[in-house]
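Case study 2.
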Amino acid sequence: MWKKIAEHITEVTGENFEVTNHSSVSGGCINNGYKLTDGSRNYFVKINQASLVEMFRAEALGLKQMYSTQTIRVPQPICYGTEGNSCYIVLEWLDLGGRGNDKSWEQMGRNLAALHRYQGKNEFGWDINNTIGSTPQINTWCGDWAKFWAEYRIGYQLKLAKRRGGSFSQGDRFLKVIPEILAGYQPQPSLVHGDLWGGNAAVSADGEPVIFDPATYWGDREVDMAMTELFGGFPTAFYRGYNEAWSLDDGYKQRKILYNLYHILNHFNLFGGGYDSQAERMMQQFL
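Prediction:
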């Protein structure tokens, strides 16, 4: 496999690359990660089963779109493909060993706001479906944000949860309430990361803020900001930097619960556990 990947890197970059060493990189729970080197150049490679190659295709497309905005640093995608029973994606190697300080995290916030301000689409969705974790994420284009969120985000996750054995007695009722929650709110479609928790953001060794492992689509910018608060939150400087660049709209504190419900339902579908009761409590806040 390493020879095939090296040949693919050579083909795409136009510079001969031969693997002299590969080492495992920890941190992910869905893919196996490796650092590849020829002694002078390094790449980051993720491996999974061959049937999931479309997941890597979507990741490459999302990173390419975010990279092209020149607003916030993401690892540049090099190539992806299959070899035998496995699929792979090759990314630019970034040294994410930086500790980060207030200046770095303020810049992270400003850069994310710049990404969100980037103009490109007049509808919500994306060119293809992708994944949130390893769960399919439906990105059918839609001009109505409330309809998009109810049908392709919360509604789809509830369908998956029922198949998993989840008992969400108020689920159907809650879907009908979403248009009321979002009534009068018309966000512009922003290019969002889509899965922006603390594990998908870091500071490089030279202090540059970086985001990675996206679940990209065009949506309300607040979905990213909401998720940054879901699992412990980002440093205070991040929120200061973002709000200085583009302050959040009135009603965000209520909407963030709706947006984070999507991720809690997804965690139930991925991991089970007590996420079903947490989702029920979040829905009940609105009902």
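The chain has two domains: 2-92, 102-286.
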